[in-house]
């Protein structure tokens, strides 16, 4: 794959991101309420103070002008200041990004280590009782509400058994690796459940399609073992349909698992998004959503790179 292809994809993403920013900005400002509602309900905040706050964040300007000012600042690297906290938007996002990377990274590693073998086994034993059982488990995992599973795990492992902390990033006064890992176990398990279930189905579908190809039958006819055929001949091509889903899910998880982080009080991007949405923090919301959009664009480019790595027949000029 040439560098020119990557550059063209990145340049092509600029008008896409521009359109996304325009739509998101419009939706955010059309939502009921506004960031000044919190101050308006406070009798100690005078109308003059409200006007000063509005002027500071540009909220006294017409919405089209607000968008122009925001876009100009965003392009130059100035993401603005949070209305809720008064801190720089980019700085707050970077602070919350670390915990999200820890949670999302562990969850995605777990998902990959479990989903790919499950998909392979299910496809290799299609129609068997094992395949049927794995299919039912996958459908159950996809259908299970995240918040319900999170509360169930908290009730079992924190309240009843007392094995794991119920929420938070670490215990007060204890920042050891073991303590951090104990806080990480349940949210990572909850976050990986749905991805394991969906990814295993995509891997199974890809494997079933590849295992029916003529070159696979030829490999069996030459006396190759089943494991050799599956892992040396079939797996690389079978992963191609799942690559896009995995890449986009990766970007989505890194952008913040809103429900999981909220239930487990995890100080990451997802929880920051909920706090910003509840407070109508326009600059923070726009920064978070644009970061997520950029992540999905990059994930699709990475997926294209993975296609070429998995299948030598794929070439990009």
Task: List the main descriptive attributes of the protein structure presented here.
0% strand, 14 helices, globular, 317 residues, MetI-like fold, mainly alpha
Summarize the structure.
The chain is mainly α and 317 residues long.
Model description:
With 317 residues, the protein is mainly alpha-helical. It has a domain at 96-310: MetI-like fold. It is 75% helix and 0% strand. It is built from 14 helices and no strands. The longest helix is centred in the middle third of the chain and has 36 residues, at 89-124. It is globular and about 85 Å long. The relative contact order is 0.14. The mean pLDDT is 81.
Q: Give the SSE string.
A: HHHHHHHHHHHHHH
What overall form do the CA principal axes indicate?
A: globular
Structure classification: mainly alpha
Head-to-tail CA distance between termini = 7 Å
CATH fold type of one domain:
MetI-like fold
Q: Work out the radius of gyration.
A: 24 Å
Q: Please write the CATH class name of one domain.
A: Mainly Alpha
In the CATH hierarchy, what is the superfamily of one domain? Answer: MetI-like
- The CATH architecture category of one domain equals Orthogonal Bundle
Mean pLDDT level: 81
Discrete helix count: 14
Number of E strands: 0
- Largest pleated sheet: none
What percent of the residues sit in helical stretches (DSSP H or I)? over 70%
Q: Stretches where pLDDT falls below 50 for ≥5 residues?
A: none
| Beta-strand content | under 5%
């Amino acid at each position: 794959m040439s560098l020119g292809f990557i550059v063209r994809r990145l340049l092509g993403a600029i008008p896409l991101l521009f359109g996304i920013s325009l739509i998101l900005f419009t939706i955010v400002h059309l939502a009921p309420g506004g960031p000044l509602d919190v101050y308006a309900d406070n009798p100690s905040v005078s109308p003059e103070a409200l006007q000063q706050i509005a002027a500071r964040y540009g909220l006294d300007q017409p919405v089209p002008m607000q968008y122009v000012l925001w876009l100009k600042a965003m392009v130059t690297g100035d993401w603005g200041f949070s209305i809720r906290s008064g801190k720089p938007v980019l700085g707050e996002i970077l602070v919350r990004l670390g915990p999200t990377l820890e949670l999302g990274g562990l969850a995605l590693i777990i998902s990959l280590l479990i989903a790919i073998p499950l998909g392979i086994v299910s496809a290799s034993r299609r129609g068997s009782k094992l395949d049927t059982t794995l299919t039912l488990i996958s459908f159950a995992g996809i259908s299970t509400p995240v918040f319900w599973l999170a509360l169930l795990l908290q009730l079992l492992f924190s309240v009843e058994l007392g094995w794991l902390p119920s929420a938070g990033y670490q215990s007060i006064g204890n920042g050891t690796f073991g303590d951090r890992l104990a806080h990480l176990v349940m949210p990572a398990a909850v976050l990986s459940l749905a991805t394991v279930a969906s990814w295993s189905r995509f891997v199974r579908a890809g494997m079933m399609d590849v295992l029916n190809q003529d070159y696979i039958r030829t490999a069996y006819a030459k006396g190759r073992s089943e494991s050799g055929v599956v892992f040396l001949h079939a797996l690389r091509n079978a992963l191609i349909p799942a690559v896009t889903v995995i890449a986009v899910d990766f970007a989505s998880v890194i952008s913040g698992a809103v429900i999981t982080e909220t239930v487990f009080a995890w100080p990451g991007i997802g929880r920051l998004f909920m706090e910003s949405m509840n407070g109508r923090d326009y600059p923070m919301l726009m920064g978070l959503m644009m970061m997520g959009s950029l992540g999905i664009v990059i994930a699709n480019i990475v997926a294209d790179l993975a296609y070429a790595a998995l299948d030598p027949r794929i070439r990009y000029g």
